[in-house]
Amino acid sequence: MVKKANQIREKESKVAEFKYKNLTQEEQDKLDAATFRRLLAHLDANKDVQNIDLMILAGFCRNCFSKWYKAEAENLGLDLDIDDARERVYGMTYDEWKQNHQPAATPEQLAAFEARQKK
């Protein structure tokens, strides 16, 4: 039974690898962009998930996305500043976000964040 499951998993992995490798760069870029937009929409729909909790659990947050967005804009020669990038990621200005959706971090969150930073 385990052998059969492993064979199925191996076959599915090869099929997925094959399909991915056959994407054109344009198709891959479109897929990546659509996935990123979906991720932003998911984060927007879950405003109760705090940046500090994302950092504790995953090592990145909305601010990280903003910084990456700005860096990639620079790589492409686009004139975007960090405030532009934050507005794209947050769907509003960063000040609006902090005022409406970012409560002060708890002592427990800060301790967990510090522990994560030491890893």
Automatic annotation (TrEMBL):
Domain of life: Bacteria
Residue stretches making up the SMc04008-like domain: 49-114
InterPro entries tied to this protein: SMc04008-like_domain, SMc04008-like_sf
Signal peptide range in chain numbering: none
Protein name stated in the entry: DUF1244 domain-containing protein
Biological classification of the source: Bacteria, Pseudomonadati, Pseudomonadota, Gammaproteobacteria, Vibrionales
